[in-house]
Automatic annotation (TrEMBL):
Pfam families associated with the record: Trypsin
Gene Ontology annotations of biological process type: proteolysis
Matching Gene3D superfamilies: Trypsin-like serine proteases
Record's GO cellular component terms: extracellular space
Listed CDD domains: Tryp_SPc
The Peptidase S1 domain, residue ranges: 1-225
Entry keywords, A to Z: Disulfide bond, Hydrolase, Protease, Serine protease
Protein name stated in the entry: GD24717
Compositional bias segments (type: Polar residues): 1-25
Segments of this protein annotated with the region Disordered: 1-29
Length: 250
């Protein structure tokens, strides 16, 4: 995948901190402010846009937030994509809907709490390139399956590092692609992966490589102030995250 696009859009995951460690509801500044993404996306300036499926349209209910800071592991390597996991901290929290509920256009999701077995059907979403080789204006989703770690290891050999997992179709035809960086891989309503890297798009025998969310769960919770593992770690799918890169269109 190419990481040098001058205009990029991706879906990431907004951490829901509306529940404290004691199980009570957080107030004001403690509301959802953290966005889970790929570390290789964390450069230059960022604007987070929620509540729209078209990356060029801001409708009634769309929320825009500046990013105050970011976090990633000091062991992250842009060359090997080791530890390609990062968090954006929003300047403003997610507004709640009337009555105190979650915002109507943002759906809650949970972090994966265990390793996802191979062969499980997942959904990946983003505004990345399609078979027409152009970025999509509308949010797209695709069905892919988790790949056995041993199979993925045989394909990518030493390039497959701890904390990485593969998903796609070994016969090709369906995959994440350029522009989907940082996007979610979801299985049965839980976030299991984050789009990281790959060779080409939807090529036979070359599945996409994702950040394994379960592998990094402790780090993610530590950075987000999420509740203990006995409590559900809740996230919100961000719809969408628009990133300013070397040439900004925002």
């Amino acid at each position: 995948m190419s990481w040098q696009a001058t205009r990029r859009a991706s879906v990431s995951s907004l951490l829901d901190t509306t529940t404290t460690r004691s199980g009570t509801s957080a107030k004001g500044a403690d509301r959802a402010r953290k966005v889970l993404t790929a570390a290789h996306c964390l450069y230059n300036e960022f604007v987070v846009v929620l509540g729209t499926l078209n990356r060029f349209e801001h409708r009634n209910g769309t929320i825009v937030s500046q990013v105050s800071s970011m976090a990633y592991m000091h062991t992250f390597s842009p060359d090997s994509m080791r530890d390609d996991v990062g968090i954006l901290f929003l300047r403003t929290g997610l507004p709640m809907s009337p009555g105190g509920g979650v915002h109507l256009t943002v759906a809650p999701i949970q972090l994966a709490g265990q390793v996802t077995p191979p062969g499980k059907l997942c959904q990946v979403a983003g505004w990345g390139r399609t078979e027409q080789s152009s970025l999509s204006n509308i949010l797209l989703t695709a069905n892919v399956s988790t790949i056995r770690h041993q199979t993925c290891r045989m394909i990518y050999r030493s390039g497959l590092l701890p904390g990485m997992m593969c998903a796609g179709r070994l016969q090709g035809g369906t995959d994440s692609c350029q522009g989907d960086s940082g996007g979610p891989l979801v299985h049965e309503g839980r976030l299991v992966g984050v789009v990281s890297w790959g060779y080409g798009c939807a090529e036979p025998g070359l599945p996409g490589v994702y950040v394994d969310v379960e592998y990094y769960r402790q780090w993610i919770e530590g950075r987000s102030g999420a509740p203990h593992s006995r409590l559900a770690t809740r996230l919100l799918l961000l719809l969408p995250l628009l990133m300013r890169c070397s040439v900004s269109w925002l």
